[in-house]
Amino acid sequence: MSRAGWVALAAALLGFPLVGGEYYINLASQIFIAAIFAASLNLLVGYGGLPSLGHASWLGLAAYISAWMSLKLGLAHWATAPLALLATTLVGCAFGWVSLRATGLGFLMLTLALSQVLWGTAYRWVSVTDGDNGLRGLTRPTPFGISLDDAASFYYFALAITAVAVWLMAVFVASPFGVALRGTRDQARRMSALGHDVWLIRWITFVYAAFWGAVSGLLFVYYNKYIHPASLSITASAEGLLAVIAGGSATLAGPIVGAVIVMILKNYVSGFIERWNMLLGFVFVFIVIFMPEGVVPGVRRLFGRGMRAWRSRR
Amino acid sequence: MAFTRRRFIQAAGLGASALGFPAIVRGQSGPIRVGLMTVKTGPLASGGIDMERALVQYLKERNYTMGGRKVDLFVGDSGGVPAQARTKIQELVERDRIHVMIGPLDTASALAADDYIRQAQLLTLSVAAAEDMTQRKPNPWFTRGTSTSSQSAQPLADYCAKTLKYKRMATIADDIAYGHEMCAGFQRVFEDAGGKIVQKLFSPLTVPDYGTYIAQLKTNVDGIFLGFAGSNGFRFFRQFNEYGLRGKIAVVGGMTAFDEAVLRNMGDEALGIVTSCWYSAEIENAINKRFVANFRVDWGYDPGFYAAATYVEAAVLEATLQALKGDIEDKPAFMKTVRAIKVDTARGPVSFDRYGNVVGSVYIRKVERKDGRLVNRVIHTYPNVSQFWTYKPEEFLKNPVYSRDWPPAKNLES
Amino acid sequence: MQYWIIQTLNSLALGGLLFLLAAGFSLIFGLMRIANLTHGSLYMLGAYVGISVLKYVPNLWLAAIIGGLVMALFGGLVERLILRPLAGNALGQVLVTLGISFIVADLCLIVWGGDPIPVPTPPALQQPILVGGVAFPTYRLVVLAIAVATALALYLLMDRTRIGAMIRAGVDDMQMARAVGIPVSRLFTAVFCLGAALAGAGGIIGGPIMSAYPGLDADMLPLALIVVMLGGVGSLLGAFVGSFLIGAIYTFGTALLPDLAYVILFLPMIVVIAFRPTGLFGRQSV
Questions:
Q1: B216: buried, middle or exposed (CB in 10 Å: 19+, 13-18, 0-12)?
Q2: Which of A70, A301, B242, C214 makes the best surface tag, with the fewest CB within 10 Å?
Q3: How far apart (Å, rounded) are the C-alpha atoms in residues C64 and C84?
Q4: Domains and CATH numbers, chain C
Q5: For residue B304, how far is the Cα from the chain centroid?
Q6: How far away is chain A from the Cα of B373, in angstroms, using its nearest Cα?
Q7: Is the pTM of this model over 0.95?
Q8: CA distance B303 to B281
Q9: What is the largest CA-CA distance in chain C?
Q10: Which secondary structure element, helix H or strand E, spans residue C186, and what is its range?
């Protein structure tokens, strides 16, 4: 994108709360959370070629740990946030070790099974998770003494975190490590012949993705002030995967656009169309068939073709 | 822009729900905007769709007018996912600018929205049964005209102990808060009346097969209490029957286990089963007779728990609006009035305790065949049942909330 | 003692039901490398279609055959029209099947409503029979028998027929199968139809036990995944052993360790895959 494009995007994002109503500001905050979630999943799916169907584990786990530490241990946000991120990332280390026993669809099934174990634990371990009631009575943090309780301040908070998250994920992908990661996706055997430890590269990526999934989980629990086992369900993981694929995996903007599409379908369009579940299904079948590389590359391709046709006609 | 408007309104002492609504046109003008928070997709859709049908019927019968003002209805569908319910409630408040919400359907959604209801000062007439929202953590904007989880189970326990003379019973329910709370209330009252709960089973929500639980059931009990909701109870009972236990162990059911919505797909195996609920399509009063007759004309089946829930809440809303002459904008006055009101509804007379929970009749019902279909005939009425049963509220509230572990089960036999 | 007899029979009957569910999933996964996430939906749709068929043809077995054929047709269409254009895009195929499952679930809600609907047990099988002095539902033993018969039929199909040989060749080495002139394209459609038919018929045969209700799809799909991952993809023997293993683990596990009821099905699968990525009987890593 050109510099003017970036400036325009930044201005639009910064200015949005001044013009949008409260409902739309909140919707945008939720989109930011979904965008971090989808972008972190994309590290695995798009760049690593590792389709995870258990990424909701990280969102849910971080949210639960943070909520539990503040409710049951009475810790403040400055303590719960790093501890929750640390604990979730450590679990990510372990789950990564197990899941990466397989690749491809086997990896998908293992991540699914492990996330189901967390889901079942959240339902059943009532003394810690309060089961089906979920954990509630939570608060939002007050960074630098600023209350995040109104829609606009939370929006800016989420925007800032999202910007940092996307930037750090972009750095990761562009680094030599990111290049090696793509190598393991495309030419795993050659990479190992070249002396790369393919398994280790994948494992580090898994843990890094889990970390950013946990960041989205913290934002999620700050936003909702509530966490329920449903956030650990297959559906939650699947929605993230849909966002990645819909927007376009292995691109930076793709998952973010995908998150926008999913959130708008789920939260906005569903207010007008009764059969929004079916619509969601059709949209994904359509995208996968007609834009198999995702909306972002798909539109870019169509746009490029149109431009060429226009130029050649001239 | 948003900041200044917000500050202005807060300074004017009005709630956040007024955002986007120019202060000048507030006051008694325009229609009353009613939001229905329900579930129309996914596994809970059956009850959620009934909620909408009954509410629309009520509004049609009143020509969409309550307390002298027109009523606009806005419907939100959460798909049964709590975080989604919260988002949808925000949408109803911030985009559709509703004055009052009926719903949500399920406990988890009500809990997920608890702090938002407080923050937005959203007038709520709930269907969900979560106990603590009208007990240890009462929400000042929350009123419930249906019942808590255990409110119908406690009279049933009394009936089992005193009228049916059961001494030993087992319970089984879904392993979620609703099931825990129902079984706990049942156990407390049953054991206080001298009975013993000798077995408590909880099965996960997504259980492929109940065979393994049925095999564990004790057969040397006087009866078993089923605390299921929706399709799980239906499946459990069919399998229970399949194992030839139907004639051997008496079955009693909580308020949703043999609901009209489930009964219409059942057969003779359900005949004679005793359940308790704050409603039955068979209640003999003029309001209910008209409700049931019209509902049957429109949809071809008897209304059950969820349909009655919104029909009753709508009656509570209308009575309150009449008392206030349509002034729903004064929220504290609304809450004060609704909690002091006494109104005749399809479920019988209804009033509220100081925690915002209903006090009303609970019916002991028996499944019978009438005009070729199965119905829940009322065989006994417990009038003016409170969420605290006959316990003193202050003492009741000193105990922990009903759960898997409280009250402790002292009489279990292994 | 009686208790153990009943629980053993329970675990066998559940295993039989799981095999009917998982056999088709395993075939499709093994041959086509598609994790078919519509499998639960096919099972549910089969049950609902069976309920509608039963209104006109009051015979469960006939309804199962008709429902199976309808699902075979549906599966064939899905394979030809949707999955075929996505050949080579494994992740796209997984997602598209997920999208279809959303559509099917909503469709069932529209057509059959949200209330649970029973599938009546055939009258002759309604009375429980006495096994070693304890009452056990006759129908469940019949389901077990059907599962064993189906397993046998599938074994003969795979082992003794030309098409079976082709399928086995495809599962073992797809490129080689293509090279020796096996019509892989038609084979894919045939296998997908067969898998869908098995799932659909399974939905009806399981109906008297499970009933049909919204959410049945989401309840069944993970079970199929677990069985197949545990047993090994593309292996009929693996699906068979996996089904009964999971049936036993579930039945005895929830009875003996009720605290683990929610997670007990997933733990064995994780352990097995972590130490043997091919599953118990699979030849290829998944």
A1: middle
A2: A301
A3: 27
A4: 2-275 (1.10.3470)
A5: 11
A6: 31
A7: no
A8: 6
A9: 59
A10: helix C184-205
How many CA atoms are closer than 13 Å to the CA of A113, on its beta-carbon side?
30
| Residue appearing with tokens 């680094």 | A175
Dist CA C90 CA C93 (whole Å): 5
Q: Where are the alpha helices (DSSP H) in chain A?
A: 3-19, 22-42, 56-72, 77-99, 104-124, 126-129, 151-174, 176-186, 188-193, 198-224, 234-247, 253-263, 276-290, 295-313
- Report all structural domains of chain B as residue ranges with CATH numbers, in order of start: 2-148+284-359 (3.40.50.2300), 153-283+361-398 (3.40.50.2300)
Say whether A230 and B119 touch across the interface (CB within 8 A).
Answer: no
Backbone φ and ψ for B168, nearest 5 degrees, come out as -125, 130
Q: Which residue of A has its CA nearest to C105?
A: A278
- Rounded distance between C-alpha atoms, residue B300 and residue B240, angstroms: 29
- Rounded CA-CA distance C53/C31 in Å is 31
Distance of CA C88 to the CA centre of its chain: 24
Do residues B191 and B411 make contact, with C-beta atoms less than 8 angstroms apart? Answer: yes
Nearest CA in chain A to B91: A23
Buried b (16+ CB within 10 A) or exposed e, B278-313: bbbbbbeeebbeebbebbeeeeebbbbbbbbbbbbb
List chain A domain ranges.
20-313
Task: For tokens 């002139």, name the residue.
Answer: C181
From A108's Cα to the closest Cα of chain C, the distance in A is 9
CA distances from A92 to A31, A85, A203, A208, A211 (A): 24, 10, 9, 9, 8
Cα B302 to Cα A228: distance, rounded to the nearest angstrom: 34
Asked whether B114 and B139 are in contact (CB, 8 A), the reply is yes
Please state, in angstroms and rounded to a whole number, the distance separating the CA atoms of residues B303 and B282: 10
Q: Which two tokens stand for residue C42?
A: 């096919």
| Cβ neighbours around C53 below 10 Å, total | 20
Q: For chain C, positions 133-152, list CB contacts with chain B under 8 A.
A: 135-137, 139-140
String of b and e for C124-139 (b: at least 16 CB within 10 Å)?
Answer: ebbebeeeeebbbbbb
Dist. CA A88–CA A82, nearest whole Å: 10
User: ω before C58 within 30° of 0 (cis)?
Assistant: no
* A residues 135-154 closer than 8 Å to B (CB): 136-138, 149-152
Are C249 and B163 contacting, i.e. CB atoms less than 8 angstroms apart?
no
Q: Which helix (H) or strand (E) holds B174?
A: strand B168-174
* Residue B38 CB-density burial (10 A; 0-12 exposed, 13-18 middle, 19+ buried): buried
- Give the CA count within 13 Å in the CB-facing half-sphere of C82: 25
Q: How far apart are the C-alpha atoms of B356 and C106, rounded to whole Å? A: 36
CA angle B39, B41, B45 (to 5 degrees): 55
Is the peptide bond prior to B208 cis by the omega test (within 30 degrees of 0)? no
Nearest alpha-carbon partner for C206 in C140, C280, C123: C140
d(CA B308, CA B55): 9
What is the complex's ipTM, to 2 decimals? 0.89
Q: Dump pLDDT digits (tens) for A206-230.
A: 999 999 999 999 999 999 999 999 9
**Separation CA C49–CA B48 (nearest Å):** 24
CATH class of A20-313: mainly alpha
Q: What is the mean pLDDT of each run of 10 residues along chain B (414 residues)?
A: 40 40 54 95 88 97 95 93 92 94 93 93 95 93 96 97 96 93 96 96 88 92 93 91 89 93 90 96 96 96 96 97 94 96 96 96 96 95 96 95 92 88
Q: How far apart are CA C195 and CA A8, in angstroms?
A: 52
Length of chain A: 314
